[in-house]
Specification:
- By secondary structure, this protein is mostly beta strands.
- Helices cover 0% and strands 60% of the residues.
- The chain has strands spanning 8-10, 16-18, 27-34, 37-44, 47-52, 55-61, 65-72, 75-81, 86-91, 97-102, 105-111, 117-122, 130-136.
- It has a seven-stranded antiparallel sheet, with no helix packed on it. A six-stranded antiparallel sheet has the order 3-4-5-6-9-12, with no helix packed on it.
- The N and C termini lie far apart (30 Å).
Length: 137
């Protein structure tokens, strides 16, 4: 896996891939259409942020590359790569409990805050993607 050079793209399965942690200067792409929704991505070395229809979806500090980002009623699934460990925030259901798996290792259950945000850390090494599954319990 490598950075998404076009900043964001649609995949054949309907998922999206976005982000380029290798960029030294902030880049953004607005009004990217996928499955009837409009996405905005901002990305560079220090942060990657994704919005859908003007609402927060994903953020990582520092920046990351995300592939096959898929949302369902039961959670979120994606692969993430970066050149250093990242703090990731995703938008989910308010006040709900989720199980977080990184590379199929259960990191425990976490509860979203009142605004539905879930924060977790992922250990990353450049050139190696980590798979993330967040499942509603």
């Amino acid at each position: 896996m490598s950075a998404v050079e076009e900043l964001i793209r649609s995949e054949a399965d309907g998922s999206i891939s976005f982000g380029d942690y290798r960029l030294e200067k902030k880049s953004k792409l607005d009004n990217f259409e996928n499955m009837g929704d409009l996405y905005k991505v901002k990305t560079f070395r220090e942060i990657t942020k994704l919005e859908r229809n003007g609402m927060f979806v994903y953020e990582s500090v520092p920046g990351t590359a995300v592939e096959n980002f898929t949302e369902t009623d039961d959670g979120v699934e994606f692969a993430v790569e970066g050149d250093r460990d990242a703090q990731i925030t995703v938008q989910l259901e308010d006040d709900a409990v989720y199980q977080v798996l990184v590379d199929d290792t259960d990191t425990g259950t976490m509860k979203t805050n009142m605004s539905g945000k879930l924060n977790f850390s992922v250990e990353l090494n450049e050139g190696a993607a980590a798979s993330v599954k967040i499942i509603k319990r």
